[in-house]
Amino acid sequence: MKIKNLIGAILVAALGLGGGIAIADGSVKALREMSVDSTNIVDEIHKQDTRRFVRNYRQQPPLIPHSIDQHQIDLRTNECLACHDWTNAGDRGAPTLSMTHYLDREGEQLDRVAGTRWFCNQCHVPQVNAPALVNNEFTPSN
Ligand code: HEC
Ligand code: HEC
Description:
It is a single chain. By secondary structure, the protein is mainly α. The chain folds into two domains: 3-40; 42-131, Orthogonal Bundle (Flavocytochrome C3, Chain A, domain 2), CATH 1.10.1130. 22% of the residues lie in helices and 0% in strands. It is built from three helices and no strands. It has helices at 3-25, 81-84, 89-92. The longest helix has 23 residues, at 3-25.
């Protein structure tokens, strides 16, 4: 046996032994404070909420009521537009981008979505029905 393999074999054996003892002992915990051999249960409450939320103030970018994991946005591609651009929204039954998304910096009307609105998730985030992390006393102005 080559020396490298031998060291490897000893390491594997030592680790296996150490791990075995620690688990039996019950002293090793996973990050979520469960023992390492039980299934992690993730809080249900943080799942995507698919009902549209009311906006908390008039100019709020509405929260996204669907998953965005599959929708790529990069320099060339923006899959959100396949449903939300004014050219597609009717067919897709999706809400059309409002006119503010077609104004450039000088306030000129464009046919295509403005560069400043290209990266949708800069402003829009998927919604979850989760408890507030900190108390919030925000009230919108009238
Ligand atoms: C396959 C089509 C499709 C794609 C792709 C898509 N959406 Fe949607 N989106 C919808 C539909 C349909 C609704 C309306 C859902 C409803 O009314 O319950 C919606 C709703 C929304 C809303 C809520 C608007 C409001 O007024 O409440 C936002 C914001 C949104 N989408 C953003 C995005 C973003 C950002 C992406 C890309 C990451 C994206 N969508 C990709 C179909 C799509
Ligand atoms: C710079 C921030 C910003 C970016 C980037 C942005 N939005 Fe918005 N969006 C808003 C705001 C603010 C509103 C609500 C006020 C308004 O309509 O202008 C809104 C409204 C919407 C609405 C609702 C329109 C309506 O009339 O109910 C949809 C749908 C939407 N955005 C989708 C998108 C998609 C898809 C993208 C990416 C192509 C995008 N937004 C990029 C800020 C942004």
